[in-house]
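Reopening this ticket.

The earlier resolution said the output was attached, but the attachment link was broken on my side. Pasting everything inline this time so it's all in one place.
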Amino acid sequence: MHFHKLISDLKESGEGKIVLLVSDGIGGLPLQPGGLTELEAANTPNLDSLAKIGVQGLSTPIRPGITPGSGPGHLGLFGYDPLEFIIGRGALEAAGIGFEMRDGDVAIRGNFCTIDSNGNITDRRAGRIPSDESAKVVEKLRAIKIDGVEVFVEPVKEHRFVVVFRAADLGDAVGDTDPQRTGVPPLEPIAHDDASKKTAKIASEFFSQAKRILANESKANCLTMRGFAHKPHMPSYKELYGLKAACIAVYPMYKGLASFAGMELVGKPATLQEEIDVLEKSWADYDFFFVHFKYTDSRGEDGNFDEKVKMIEELDKIIPRITALKPAAFVITGDHSTPAKMASHSFHPVPTLIVSDLARTDTCEKYGEKYAATGGLGHFEAQYLMSLALAHAGRLGKFGA
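Inline output:
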């Protein structure tokens, strides 16, 4: 029996509400062997108080040793096997800004970048160009015309934008053009199968025209393309879990992923405090709330240990506002680890805490990697987090007689 069918068969209605608070990239590493991770170094009295009454463990986003992207990392948290449900980043970004993809469209996540006079990348994110500046540059890219193809270019946030190609017979198996490092030029879009050769050719033409258009920009004078993707199809939270689910997030990509899972996008928050405002106002209307906090990840990607610690402490401050709502199951975790030491996503398991009246409290005194390694949840794959959340909320029935 497929695990999704099992959970769908066992789901029960109830009053218990679930909050899934995802601190993106929260897992970390000590800068020196034997030292503290960012989470362990942070002053987190509220999270630590929950650790004393909850149950903790380490979740593996994909499989042991595999470093996840944000899309697969969140899919696992939502209860979908990331190796079965593969959603490209482009489709996530498109859905997150409300772009209505059609079957056959190919969406691409674009990043503005900065190149030098030799064409080598000096900044992969164009200095995280502000959104209002980025939108003006996107407007220039709308001048691109390619025979036989409808081209859509839409701003997202900061250096991010979305490109959608609409034409017949477009495959989406095209490699990213972001080399993931500086000092080298953007890569060519390479098709990984025959069906995607047409898409790669279109992407190459788009890049050529874009490079000419952007040549005189001070920051965003070039671009890279990532996550070529068709529109995905997957069962919804209502179908699987019987939950009316809400997504409260700032960044479009996470809204896109949540929308594919059938969550409603609630509010238009721009800060963590505003996200909790939305949570409080919509509390009576939903059974499940996915709340996303981005900046633990971005500070880790910047390689800034101290700033990531500060972001964790910022997260800790809003915890009492969530516990005051008295969720039946309150889950705190991340979609992956982003150690500042590595300045990138990593393969390390993620500390995960569940607080519930049904939790079998363990001996953990604080929320952090070392405690999670000894916690009562043990080590588990993230795709099973939703069944744990449902059970702790009293929404999962018995299997068998």
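Reporter confirms the inline version is readable. The chain has two domains: 3-85+234-392, 92-229. The longest helix spans residues 305-323.
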